Amino acid sequence: MKTRVLFGIDGFALEFFWRTHWEEESDGEAIVDFETIEIWGQEMVRTPMCCLTFQGGVDGDFSRDWTNEWLGSVDLRLESYLALPNQQTVDYPSFKLVIVGDGGTGKTTFVKRHLTGEFEKKYEPTIGVEVHPLDFFTNCGKIRFYCWDTAGQEKFGGLRDGYYIHGQCAIIMFDVTARLTYKNVPTWHRDLCRVCENIPIVLCGNKVDVKNRQVKAKQVTFHRKKNLQYYEISAKSNYNFEKPFLYLARKLAGDPNLHFVESPALAPPEVHIDLAAQQLHEAELAQAAAQPLPDDDDDTFE
To the nearest whole percent, how much of the chain has pLDDT over 90? Predict the structure, then answer.
């Protein structure tokens, strides 16, 4: 049995009870058979499906008439988006945390620092996402973040909405050694907010341990324009690892005094950060925060 994911409808999975096939519109030849299709998207059943993506990378558009007829022939069942199917549920507060950003910015490295989350991760190859359950111990009790990592699938831009649905908080990550990854932050933010309105978001500038920094602290202004929290981090050195999670936990709990009472088990640092140099960057960031925002919407680099 083959399982494929379809984006365009919220909260439902379609189960076929017969074998059928999808024909490529260009030449009418059947290119794949399937028995099960899962649907991920933003709207309810009234919204037509727009794209069926096969693991082999074939995309096809569906007409409204054909889609509506097809929907009438299948069985619908409600699914939860807070976790993947068969994922363990817990009896303490848990939140879906979506981590987005350009490929190579260190998202996967970041979540893998948390050893428990790495050990208990679940992978869904159909949509190319890894979900890492990261537990933290606070003065108000234990909490869990289900960290949805796109697992290198950023290139499939049309599939992102499936990751975002029912996201309760988010991290947008860029690489301070690659200017383009910062320039793309507004796009990630726009796509995220289109699906997840009014959720707490942290912007993270990763790889501050690297010497040849291309995005200076004073040049990072997007978070001020959009009222986001910003942290400079180094995934490989564990620098500031907990800060994004603590900020999000406080926002979600509505308690600014919430704090972690136990450090998570992290993998040993792979590199060591120059703390003196980073303190200068942090001071530069604080100084920049006191300055007026630039008039234009574009982030410029000198």
Answer: 43
Helix/strand/coil for 176 = coil
What pLDDT shows up at residue 111? 93
Domain count, the chain: 2
| Residue pair 251/257 in contact by the 8 Å Cβ criterion | no
Residue ranges of the chain with pLDDT lower than 70?
Answer: 1-89, 123-127, 151-160, 295-302
Owning domain of residue 140: 94-263
If asked whether residues 45 and 117 sit together in one domain, one would say: no
Question: What is the C-alpha to C-alpha distance for residues 225 and 57, in angstroms, rounded to an integer?
Answer: 37
The DSSP string of 85-149 is TTPPP-SS-EEEEEEE-STTSSHHHHHHTBHHHHHT-EEETTTTEEEEEEEEEETTEEEEEEEEE
Q: Does residue 28 sit in the same domain as residue 99? A: no
Sign of the torsion angle spanned by Cα atoms 251, 257, 262, 268: positive
| Residue 234 and residue 123 in one domain | yes
Cβ–Cβ under 8 Å, residues 185 and 105: no
* Burial track 103-137 (b if 16+ CB lie within 10 A, e otherwise): eebbbbbbbbbbeebbeebbebebbbbbbbbbbbe
SS3 of residue 248 by DSSP: helix
Shortest CA distance to 57 belongs to which of 162, 159, 161? Answer: 159
Q: Distance of alpha carbon 290 from its chain centroid, rounded? A: 30
Give the span between the Cα atoms of 92 and 8, in whole angstroms: 31
pLDDT digits (tens, 9 = 90+) for 40-63: 333 322 222 223 332 333 334 333
Q: Residue 257 maps to which CATH number? A: 3.40.50.300
CB distance 22 to 32 below 8 Å: yes
Q: What is the DSSP string of 218-234?
A: GG--HHHHHT-EEEE-B
